[in-house]
Amino acid sequence: MSEMTPVAPAYGRVLLKLSGEALLGEQTYGIDRAIARQIAREVGEIQQLGVQTAIVIGGGNIFRGVAASAKGMDRAQADYMGMLATVINALALQDSLEQEGVVTRVLSAIEMRSVAEPFIRRRAVRHLEKGRVVIFAAGTGNPYFTTDTAAALRAMEVKAEVILKATKVDGIYTADPVTHPDATRFDTITYLEVLERRLKVMDATAISLCMDNKLPIKVFNLLTPGNMKRAVMGEPIGTTVSA
After folding, report:
1. pTM
2. Half-sphere exposure at residue 175, Cβ-oriented, CA atoms within 13 angstroms
3. Residue range 13-242, CATH number
């Protein structure tokens, strides 16, 4: 039997959105090195396919601005602290990626030149073209915007073809599958349905931004090994949000 022709990836440039909680593993706080290494290995796999990869990471495993402001802290101040937490995560992920042999650059929306490059759009695109993984840290650099919105914004800026939203569940459900065992999963769903049903995929600002710019979002389970590769190959996993 002749060897099968290798199938090309469905996307040439992707933006991977990771929550800070994704790095928790079984812990209640901080960064689980084993999870960081697993993510790094999977990103390395899609890099080897020639897929240019940008990453936006949250900070919820260290500090949540929204939660702190609910307890009486000034919202802007709390959000800046949350942005700094994302920089810690970005550096941890960079370390894991580089231990896997993946060349990585951290670009921060808040300038801190001794640990990260400042975010400059053209520089980010150049890094991607050279085959480096780019991690965008510090959200958008503005309070009141989530890292989901940062992911949508950065994806537009670098002209990514899709947002890969890696979560702890295997897609978008009619309700939280943890508390509602009878909830059903969508294979595909429109941006408008997500907004109308108030489904907790990404926040409304991020969804609206993707809708206005026709940028698809693919929601899949990060904890299943090989899923990231399946997502970039265009295999029918998780849920796709599109027009």
Report:
1. 0.95
2. 6
3. 3.40.1160.10
